[in-house]
Each structure stands twice: as C-alpha cells, then as structure tokens.
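Example (one chain per record):
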Amino acid sequence: MEPIIKIQSLTKIYNEKTNPVKALDNIDLEIQKGDIYGIIGMSGAGKSTLVRCFNLLERPTSGIVTVRGQDLQSLTPRELRRARTHISMIFQHFNLLMQKNVEENICFPLYINKVKKPEAHARCKELLEIVGLSDKAKAYPSQLSGGQRQRVAIARALATNPEILLCDEATSALDPQTTSQILDLLREINAKFGITIVIITHEMAVVREICSHVAIVDGGRIVEKGTVDEIFESPKTEEAKRFVLYRERKVTFEGGQGI
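Predicted structure:
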C-alpha cells in the first residue's frame, strides 16, 4: 500500500550561507493511511521542523515530500493551497483568534475556502457535537479552559474534512487528566473518520497511550523507528533506551515507589 506520507532523503539547513545549522539530516519516513504515528524527541531535536515539512510550512533544503501521492514541492502555489486543505494542524498553544467566538474560530477556515455562511454554521454545529462543546458556540477563548480551547482547535482543524491531522505538542500545555481526554478524542476521531494523525511530542507516555508507530528524532536524524511495542520492549539505540528508561522512572515516581 502506498503510504499517505512519504519522506525521502529530507534535509533542512538554516542560514546556509552565513552560519549553517542542519536541523534535519537525510530523513526517510513512511506513514500509512489511518495510522496514529508518534514522532518523539527532546527540545531542539528537529521534530517540529520535520512535521512542518509535511505541509511545506518549512521548505526542505533537499529531499522529497510526498503526501497523498503528490510531490508537494512540484506543485504550483495554487495547487499547494488546495493540497493543504487535506492537511490540518493543531498546536500546543491552540492558536485561536481571541477576538472571535468559538463559532467564528471554527468557521474561519471554511470562509477562507469560500464556503457559504449557512453551510459553514451547519458544519460548525456538527463539529462542536464531535468535540463535546455544543453549548460553547458563542463563548470566547478567554472564557474556556485549556482543554476546551484545544477541543475548539481540533474542531477548527477538522472543518475542511482533512485526511491528515498534524499535532505539534498539542497536549504539552495541558494537565495529565485533560491530556488523557484529548488523546481519547483524537483516538475517536481516528477510528470514526479514518484520519491519519501524526503526533509530535517529547512525552513518551503520550506515544504509549495512543500511537501504533513511533520514530525517535535526535540531532536532526531518525535514530530508531518501528511499532510502539517494538520500541518499548526492545529499544536498539541508546537514544531510544533513554526515552524508555525515563518513562519507567517517571511511572515509578508517580506511583509513589520512587525516591
């Protein structure tokens, strides 16, 4: 089966002529349609840069980005805009329009795509039911909790019926209980709509809870990838072993048995 996302020999260098920094180094990665795929690494590892290459918010210095069978770098600006309607993102800090209410935030991408107001409002109502916020259409982001704001961001991301949802540290600003609720919602969305979800995180517990596959990024390279069970049960690299060991120590501490 052809992967929905295929990355080949991808490299990203910033400030090439003055003070070059290699953020990504010769990355190869395939993500299958309908998967929940985790990309994990410490701060500065390159994972957020990598996911932003999936929709060309970051342009690779070299390499090929193929999404839904299209080489994104070969597309015209108009074709790329159309391709991006199939790829949505949610972020750590929600990125909501604070001066607009929930309904206006969710309808915003629909208006950009020239969807008429009655149709956009009907879609918004449907999405609010999916994320469990049917009573919050007229509320403003400042009136919502962090978890509710992230639910609004998820609803907005789903507005254009994307096939791919990119989650860049989407639970890092949330408490553990709210994180679990948001992960449950993402799991339900994946199961109900078949949307491929890519989760960028530094939290191994998030990967363990929701992902089927994971790639570990360190120093701009993928140092290990495979199923979550493979990585947890038998990590092969020192980097992977550090992540698994850190998680085990954290679980022990939280369970009250640590020092």
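Caption: The chain has nine helices and ten strands.
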